[in-house]
Amino acid sequence: MNFNNIPWSIKKIVRMKDNIDPKPQYQRGPVWRTPKKQLLIDSIINRFDIPKIYLRRVTGMSPYDYEVADGQQRLIAVWGFINQEYPLGSVRGDNDGWSGKIYSELNKKQRNHILSYKLIITTVHDATNDEIRELFARLQKGERLTPPELRNSMASALGDVIRAMAETHHFFNGNSFANSRYKRDDLLAHAFAIELYAGSQDLKAPNLAQMYKEHQSSIDQKAVSRVNQVLAYMNKMQNEIPNCIKTKWGFVDVFWLVSKRLGNLPSPKRIATKFIKFDQLRLRHMKDPATLIAASNRKADKDLYDYIVAFSVGGSLKENLAIRQRVLTKKLLAR
Description:
51% of the residues lie in helices and 8% in strands. The model has no long low-confidence stretch (mean pLDDT 88). The termini are far apart. The longest helix has 20 residues, at 221-240. It folds into two domains: 2-143, no CATH class; 148-333, no CATH class. It is of the alpha/beta class. It has 14 helices and five strands. It has helices spanning 10-15, 34-45, 72-82, 108-115, 129-139, 147-152, 157-168, 183-197, 205-214, 221-240, 248-261, 268-285, 302-313, 318-333; strands at residues 2-9, 20-21, 53-57, 66-70, 118-125.
């Protein structure tokens, strides 16, 4: 792995846009809000220093010359402003007259002022996939990444399978689980943990990261097939009643229930209908579950109370997962 530092002007960065892949697999999606993008352009206008950007030189059949190893959010902010996706904020200093303008509203001198700004681009050559993921992980140590983003930066056969399934499995088409910040990957990590460990471990972030390490070089294809089959059944539930599964822990609990009884379940429509009614009841009592076991309650429901408490006090702990599984089994599979 070799590095080469080259100053690029904003003009060149804009010109090279179509030659740079901003979303290789290990990168997260766009997460900067407009004020942070505006602050970056303000820094360019006022000639503040901006951290260098790392671009990996791509070889082979890729349509790109480079992929972003670090600096994705900065590049997207620059391209977005030039493409008039957002206006300037309150520009500081002597350039406050620029405030609130979009790129097309700037005069030629102002545009050249932005386009002439140079920052350091570090091009990375002859890097393996493992090396570039390690570089990305190290460069992000100073920034708060979510646990799924950190796992995504790890070289892992399991991670490769999860990334592919997050993009291609029918379960994720048209439902409420967007893939911003690798939320689908996170769901699938929980699914594989259930399949591989059968409730013997907590589903906390360190446990999931350890699972990626344990399956760094290979993953049992039987587990992959099983996860696919469970998701296929859950997809039928979603088709029967759209978005009947719409929360992370709802996904986890239904996945485990289906996984334990795959091939011996009622119709997806029946399970979806019962789960919707159960989840509506859960939401109704979330603020004050104690009313479910009050002596004055003629419709006391100790099971739902247990589920809500287990849901609230530590959803990722194995003992609470087991409680919720017991209750959900009783509620959804009772005749």
